Amino acid sequence: MEDEDQQKIADLIKELVLRLLSQNPTSDSQPLNPKSPSFHKHLRYALRILSARLCPSIAPDSAAIAESIKRRLVTKGKSSQALTFSELYTKFASKTGPGSVNNKWAVLHLLDIVSEDRKNAGAQLGSPLLLLPNLSLNDAESGDGDSRVLRRGGSKEKGWNNGVLVVASDSGNFRDIAFREFANFVKEENEVSEEILVREVLYACQGIDGKYVKFDAGSDGYVLSDSIKVPRATRTMVRKLCELGWLFRKVKGYIWDSMDRFPAEDVGTVGQAFCAALQDELSDYYKLLAVLEAQSMNRIPLISESVNSGNYLSLRRLSVWIAEPMVKMRLMAVLVDKCKVLKGGAMAGAIHLHAQHGDPMVQEFMRRLLRRVCSPLFEMVRSWVLEGELEDIFAEFFVVGQPVKAESLWREGYMLHPGMLPSFISQSLAQRILRTGKSINFLRVCCDDRGWADAATEAAAAAGTSTSRGGLGYGKTDALESLVDEAAKRIDEHLLDVMYNRYKFKEHCLAIKRYLLLGQGDFVQYLMDIVGPQLSEPANTISSFQLAGLLETAIRASNAQYDDPDILDRLRVKMMPHGTGDRGWDVFSLEYDARVPLDTVFTESVMAKYLRIFNFLWKLRRVEHALIGAWKTMKPNCITSNSFTKLQQAVKLQLVSTLRRCQVLWDEMNHFVTNLQYYIMFEVLEFSWSNLSNEMEVAKDLDDLLAAHERYLNSIVEKSLLGERSQTLYKSLFVLFDLILRFRSHADRLYEGIHELQARSESSLPSQDKSKSRKQMKDRSSEPGSWFSEGRKALTQRTNEFLRNMGQDLDSISKEYSSLLENFISQLPEQQHVDLKFLLFRLDFTEFYSRQHPSS
């Protein structure tokens, strides 16, 4: 089928040539023989023209050509012909299938050119038969290289009055002549060839000065010498291309300074990784320059030779080649400027900020760079989270360690360095990373435990990572969070298990509550009974060793003896610093020895708070103990009515009145102390302990445990009037305590005098009791100023005077107590803590004080 088409095309070409030669005015008058040698030469020339690669300089658009032809006809006033052409073109364009023309635009273009040529030829030669240029044998075979495109002249007998267009492929073609003239023009205008400029630019891209392009420190860049004669556009292009060399010089200088000039501690491992990543990128850049330099050795062909040219490098081609390296080099130069004064996590975070880019090429480049840069940082994270090792010799990690004592390891040993925290690690994740490594170090140093290693291995297996190096990297944030969460959960759980079971944290908290916060009632009562006489002495005369023995006695005499011996061994007597005039009651205290690792919770500041609470509770218990002692003295069976039958009626009434005032005042004081004691023991201590117990059950890590204990302690301090906002109320309360203790001493004096009077007034006793009474009276009569050394009249007088003085003292104490209590109660509503307002409700439940002093 294809052979038949080829033969058909050949026959059509022969017929076309035959017709053209027969109509050509330059041909002979005799008919031309198709088998003659002359015809075959013309046929070969026509075939050569048809097989040439010449093509029109228009777009292959049939609709555009048809529109152009129609517009030209309308412009010339041939509207009817334009309408006819439009109908014919519509039919021609709609014709498809077998027998249709494929290249419709080419047919239209050919017809348009033929029409214009006929018009031009008719105007020039006056013959409508000239369709194509002269196909004479002499012209076709002419090899004259100097012939021009437009030939003028010719024989008048042949009808050639003007020149015609010669379509040929020899050296006389107009296009070749134009190309040669352009090349000569370029050589005349340029003093330096483009090949040399390309090589000069390649030298500049490597940071090397060439012959014509050199680095100028004044302009801070590579410039082409002004003495070189080149076009302005070429000079501008060279300057733009040499920007790559300036960027390369900046990046290379940073690498050289960081690796050779600056000490390692100023650069750090992250900085070294950054330099290594930049060096790898420059290695790829060097490979590209090698390829470009090889291409620059090829000659740049003329435009007419572009079809058959091989690989070469011009300035424009070079600009295309280095477009992508230019983007990368600019980015690296920006990163170099940004990271000059940074290191470690700060450097990684600064580089990460430039990775947020919309260009996929830039994103991939930054991701590849950050994987190398962040490798040391993620290795530090892995080592810290799984091994508790701080491999940070150049201070680059966002976790900072410092040498501290074992009791301060958790709170002060390790902390976050915000300046070194990269932006791709959140603050919450950094806190979990810090706590995980800190837990491992706490277990290893303070608890002497090695069980964390198994927990770390299980965490790595659960997270799907390896405990070896290289398991983490940039872009694997989910894997990092998974590893940290699994490690934190398992290691914190193991830490709490060690604290609760091995070191019995809960038991020690309960022991402190029972002994330092005086929750063990029988122990406290017995201790106060046996140390009372000792503590009444001046503080500088009391032996701490004797008090330690009394403490041991109190333990053995109470239910405290059944506690864990380790807990009892930690309970000790402490004598606070004292001055002149201080009594033992003022300096006595108990302390609890919290050893490692418990001293992480029970620090010195925490134990100081416990000491403040103990002193307050000890003072409250002392006041309560004093009132109980006064009651024992005042109880009814101590005084019988028969003892005062021989006294005068006035003295008897005065005695009863004094005793009544003393009893009423004791009741008021006892009411106040009892309610305050109830509030402290139940509303403060027990409620806070219940909250602490619940929080210990739900604590997930040691930080939760520390926070729970701190809230527990602060709650007790605030509710017990020991907070900063309750200092005025606290001082008022202690003045009340001192007044109650003074009342106890007055009550003792009163009843000592009454007992003395009772002993003197006894008249009827059994013989044995009488002899005993006489002995006591004899002993007392020897004392100077004793009532028994006086007579009955003097006894009555002394009794009146004594009761009057005691009554006055009691009235004074009663008034002062009422004033102080009113002041104390009036301050309670001003307190911000709601529990202190509840204390007011307990003290004034019947609104007795409110009605008594409505103004307050």
UniProtKB/TrEMBL annotation:
One of its GO terms (biological process) is meiotic cell cycle. InterPro entries: GCP (IPR007259), GCP_C (IPR040457), GCP_C_sf (IPR042241), GCP_N (IPR041470). Residues 507-849 form the Gamma tubulin complex component C-terminal domain. Keywords: Cytoplasm, Cytoskeleton, Microtubule. GO terms for cellular component: gamma-tubulin complex; microtubule; spindle pole. Coiled coil: none annotated. One of its GO terms (molecular function) is microtubule minus-end binding. Belongs to the TUBGCP family. This is Gamma-tubulin complex component 3-like protein. It comes from Morus notabilis.
